[in-house]
């Protein structure tokens, strides 16, 4: 997917491009691979059935008030680490109001004990 996006855009850094893509874009991209389709739903004709099953399971969990994760509780789920901030956070951090707050905090004196 990254290779195709680089060819399309001509850019080396694709962070912003992928931040603006909805998560579903990667799933749709994977539908081009027959082994992925076979594992998830068998054929593209039965794709809607796979989504119906997901909806049914989710609705059952909501109705039974079951909010447990689908994996074992002792299993640690790794989180993705990245050096760049999400777009919404970048807008907040770079805002003029936030800069004023940072300068104000830096200029204030520490309380005496």
Offer a quick outline of the entry:
This protein is an all-alpha fold and 113 residues long.
Molecular structure report:
The protein is mostly helical and 113 residues long. It has 7 helices and no strands. The protein has helices at 2-9, 15-20, 24-30, 34-40, 47-63, 87-93, 96-107. It is elongated and about 70 Å long. The N and C termini lie far apart (58 Å). The model has no long low-confidence stretch (mean pLDDT 78).
Radius of gyration: 22 Å
What overall form do the CA principal axes indicate?
elongated
Q: What's the number of helices? A: 7
Number of strands: 0
Low-confidence stretches: none
Return the average pLDDT rounded to an integer. 78
Order of helices and strands: HHHHHHH
Structural class: mainly alpha
């Amino acid at each position: 997917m990254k290779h195709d996006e680089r060819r399309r855009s001509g850019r080396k850094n694709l962070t912003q491009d992928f931040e603006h893509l909805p998560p579903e874009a990667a799933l749709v991209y994977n539908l081009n691979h027959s082994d992925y389709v076979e594992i998830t739903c068998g054929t593209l004709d039965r794709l809607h059935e796979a989504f119906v099953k997901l909806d049914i399971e989710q609705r059952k969990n909501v109705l039974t008030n079951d909010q447990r994760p689908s994996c074992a509780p002792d299993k640690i789920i790794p989180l993705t680490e990245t050096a760049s901030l999400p777009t919404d956070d970048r807008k907040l951090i770079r805002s003029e109001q936030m800069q004023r707050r940072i300068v104000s905090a830096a200029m204030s004196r520490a309380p005496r004990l």
